[in-house]
Design a protein that fits this description.
The chain is an alpha/beta fold. The chain folds into two domains: 123 residues, Resolvase, N-terminal catalytic domain (Rossmann fold); 52 residues, Arc Repressor Mutant, subunit A (Orthogonal Bundle). The chain has a four-stranded parallel sheet, sandwiched between helices. Helix 1 links the parallel strand 1 and strand 2. The longest helix is centred in the middle third of the chain and has 34 residues.
Length: 191
């Protein structure tokens, strides 16, 4: 009986890994695999280092699994180079990679080519998401919308900080008196 590592990932805490996990458990049950589950919740697929994936790879390196299964390749990663590196390491260690959605056999040249093409699509989607987010931020800034964290200092605190700075007090001293970071004071005074 082969031991399978099941990997699930969602990008935001509001999403649920349950549909992925249910599909993977059903797949493993039909093949009689023992399973170990690895998850990353609220973690972007563009990050190469993720707690769940890192633990999975450590388990692979320890020779404890023969199969790694994911619901879709983009759950494993959205960065092409990282995805290919993970797939390459699995192949070198004779660990089968199964993606339920794509159904690719990585033991064949065509399967490896398909992995590269699907990895490119995942990377393209990641790049499009980044472009849309950046365009949205730029449009909001043009409309005068303040982006980023909410200001740490209210109007009265900003006035007090200005008076203190005008009287020659250091940024560090002002920050200490107001109980915020120097960066917060500098940002508030710059606006």
């Amino acid at each position: 009986m082969a031991r399978a590592a099941l990997y699930c990932r969602v990008s935001t805490p509001e999403q649920s890994i349950d549909p992925q996990l249910d599909a993977l458990r059903a797949w493993a049950a039909t093949r009689g695999h023992e399973v170990e589950v690895f998850t990353d919740e609220g973690v972007s697929g563009s990050r190469a280092s993720r707690p769940g994936l890192d633990a999975l790879l450590a388990t692979v390196r320890a020779g404890k699994v023969q199969v790694v299964a994911c619901a879709a390749l983009d759950r494993l990663g959205r960065d092409l180079q990282h995805l290919l590196a993970v797939a390459g390491e699995l192949r070198e260690r004779n660990v089968e990679l199964v993606s339920l959605r794509e159904g690719i056999d990585l033991h064949s040249p065509m399967g490896r080519a398909m992995l590269a093409m699907l990895g490119l699509v995942a990377q393209l989607e990641k790049d499009w998401i980044t472009d849309r987010v950046n365009a949205g931020i730029a449009a909001a800034k043009k409309r005068g919308v303040r982006c980023g964290r909410p200001p740490r200092l209210d109007g009265e605190a900003v006035k007090r900080a200005r008076r203190m700075r005008e009287s020659g007090q250091s940024l560090r001293h002002v920050a200490r008196v107001l109980g915020v970071s120097r960066a917060a004071v500098a940002t508030a005074l710059a606006t």
